[in-house]
Amino acid sequence: MPFSEFTTTNVSVAVIGVFILGFSSILTGLNFITTVHRLKMPEMKWTKMPLFVWALYATAWIQVLATPILGITVLLIFVERMFGIGLFDPAKGGDPILYQHLFWIYSHPAVYIMVVPAMGVVTEIIPTFARKHIFGYKAIAFSSLAIAFAGSLVWAHHMYTSGMSDTAVLIFSFLTFIVAIPTAIKVFNWVATLYKGSIVIEPPLLYALSFIFLFSIGGLTGLILGSAGTDIHVHDTYFVVGHFHYTIFGGTGFGFFGAMHYWFPKIYGRMYNKKLAVISWAILFVGFNILYFPMLVIGMMGMPRRYYDYLPQYHTGHLISTIGSWILATGLLLMFYNLFKSIKHGEKVGKSPWGAATLEWTTPSPPPTLNFVGEPKLTRGPYDYKGVEEDEQYT
Amino acid sequence: MSNIHKDYIGSKFGMWLFLFTEILLFGGLFILYSTYLHKYPAEFHLAGKELNVYFGGGNTVALVTSSLFMAMSISAIQKGDKRLAIIFLGITLALAFVFLINKYFEWGAKFHHGIYPDSPTLLQRPKGEIIFFGLYFVMTGLHGIHVLVGASIIIYVLFMLKNEKVNKDDFVLLENTGLYWHLVDLIWIYLFPLFYLIV
Ligand SMILES: [Cu+2]
Q1: Contact A83 B117 (CB under 8 A)
Q2: Calpha distance B20→B110 (Å, rounded)
Q3: Does the beta-carbon distance from B10 to A39 stay under 8 Å?
Q4: Which of A137, A256, B44, B64 is the most buried (most CB within 10 A)?
Q5: What's the Cα-to-Cα distance from A95 to each of A163, B191, B198, rounded to whole Å?
Q6: Domain stops at, among A165, A200, A235
């Protein structure tokens, strides 16, 4: 039966915490879906919405549809610990693999809850700094929904070695490859948007570009794990750890940092030190790769995950990785120092420091209560840059 | 611009989404039920026979009737009849307690025969029967908690009716409570045949 049901650590309190957090996740998703349907300004048609909103909309559906399964799973852990019912205990007729299914039905979509909003951020940043209409608006909007849908059907790719049937392995492996398609659609559209754009290199763009690079590595190593044959070789090794960090840190993390640098001047009405932002980005990016790339290598060599100790042949990999972690931490500290300091002391900016075309850049920075001075007017599409008013110091 | 924003459709829209999540929450248990029914059809049949159809049937009648009174309470407030809305909602609440009291005696009888989770009597039974009673207690228990939560919300709405915070022009709180109550009813309508009738 699942370890969480008989370990003597205080799992019961933790799962109650998870259950309550689940409520917050569900209610957030529910709020965003309802808001997108009911609170758009009348002129804002579905194809006029910023693609970031499309990404949040798709994410909200995953939150609403997947989180209840986590809810029932942690509730069952709690009930099993309290009353010993035995629904997952073979000695009482239960099947532990069912527990794994319930766990992963939520926990695979959970990674899309983390990364799809980051993809939305990248979709905003790239056209702004390429001064070019986004390439393939509808394809990007649709691919967010496609990821949300297809991503809900691949959970058992975490269970190839669990003893489930070979037919199930085959089907879930196939479906996992399907998810790569909408993801690749996004990547190609981002690159196509950059093509022949008048690119301005600013800190948010650097984070967006590193997202594409790192997430591509994360995605492609994911396909190695998604094919049943190769997964048997690298299952439960550092390769999985490396893959996961390339997707979630390289993807969600860098997307999040990109968003902070993109909307920071809007939120605080001040700009951070751009030079320092670029330096900390560079340290972060280099440190990231030195930390996580060796994990892919020693994982391939057979280093198992979840052990604090290892055989001598993995020493070099671990050593490089550790040094990378120090570099990464330095970059993070510098980045946060820069941002926190600039909240009070940054140079003042106007409405639109980047010359972006979406509505939030037409209101003062920071925005007043209720966000806009008077009813906002929609005069352009989210990626029409012709005649955008931009703050003086940047034109 | 004003920040007072009442969106009747939006608020029902959100409630329907929440009801989806409730169905999915029970959905996890329905998956377990169907898998184990497939694995242990004979044991489920034998164990199911031990449940008392009259207890279950009586509770079904109580809940369905309570749903009727909930709907009538909403119609009453729509017509502006506060007194009748309170009476009908009060009857809904009373039927919720009929359900819970009935459940107390039903579970009590099972406990009396030594059948409760992890009990020595139950553990001597075949595995399929242990699972059947496990699912029975978990699923009807979780449903019972929903009845209790629904009843608490109904009590709150009764006060809101009394203070006229819920009134002829603004009754979405009562309507959403009604939606929740119908869901609690609906889930029971699936649980009843699954445990008492079909196996
Ligand atoms: Cu997965």
Answers
A1: yes
A2: 32
A3: yes
A4: B44
A5: 12, 22, 23
A6: A200
Q: Has residue A379 been placed in a domain?
A: no
Digitized pLDDT (tens) for each residue of chain B, 199 residues in all: 566 778 999 999 999 999 999 999 999 999 999 999 999 999 999 999 999 999 999 999 999 999 999 999 999 999 999 999 999 999 999 999 999 999 999 999 999 999 999 999 999 999 999 999 999 999 999 999 999 999 999 999 999 999 999 999 999 999 999 999 999 999 999 999 999 998 7
Determine the Cα–Cα distance for residues A55 and A334; give it in Å rounded to an integer: 30
The answer to the question of residue A387 being in a domain is no
For chain A, the average pLDDT equals 95
Please indicate, yes or no, whether residues A83 and A127 belong to a single structural domain of this protein. yes
DSSP E strand boundaries for B4-106: none
Closest residue in B to A83 (Cα–Cα): B117
Q: Is the pLDDT of residue A37 over 90?
A: yes
Structure tokens at A303: 């280093």
Q: What is the mean pLDDT of residues A211-229?
A: 95
Same domain as A1, residue A145? yes
Q: Give the CA radius of gyration of chain A.
A: 23
pLDDT at A394 over 50: no
Confidence of residue A393 (pLDDT cuts 50, 70, 90): low
- Are B1 and A85 an interchain contact pair (Cβ–Cβ within 8 Å)? no
Which residues have CB under 8 Å from B131's CB, separation 6+? A86, A87, A92, A93, A94, B36, B40, B43
Residues A140 and A268 in one domain: no
- Same domain? For A248 and A370 the reply is yes
Locate A155 and state its tokens: 């959970």
> Could you say which DSSP state residue A368 is in?
P
Give the minimum alpha-carbon distance from B180 to chain A in angstroms, rounded to a whole number. 16
* Mutate: best of B32, B35, B40, B183, partner A, most A CBs <10 A: B32
| pLDDT(A210) > 90 | yes
Tell whether A217 and A164 lie within a shared domain: no
Task: Give A30 to chain B, closest Cα distance, Å.
Answer: 6
- Using an 8 Å Cβ cutoff, are A33 and A62 in contact? no
Q: Among A185, A200, A215, give the residue marking a domain's end.
A: A200
pLDDT digits (tens, 9 = 90+) for A65-102: 999 999 999 999 999 999 999 999 999 999 999 999 99
| Residue owning tokens 């198992």 | A304
Does residue A93 belong to the interface with chain B, where contact is any CB pair within 8 Å? yes
DSSP, collapsed to helix, strand or coil, labels residue A122 as helix
* CATH code of A70's domain: 1.20.210.10
Decide if A307 is inside a domain.
yes
Mark the residues whose beta carbon lies below 5 A from ion ligand 1. Answer: A 108
Query: Domains along chain B?
Result: 2-196 (1.20.120.80)
- Chain B hits for A64, Cβ within 8 Å: 17, 20-21
pLDDT tens column, A326-343? 999 999 999 999 999 999
For A337, how many CA atoms within 13 A lie in the half-sphere containing its CB? 10
Amino acid at B145: I
In a domain, A115, yes or no: yes
- Residue A370 has a pLDDT of 87
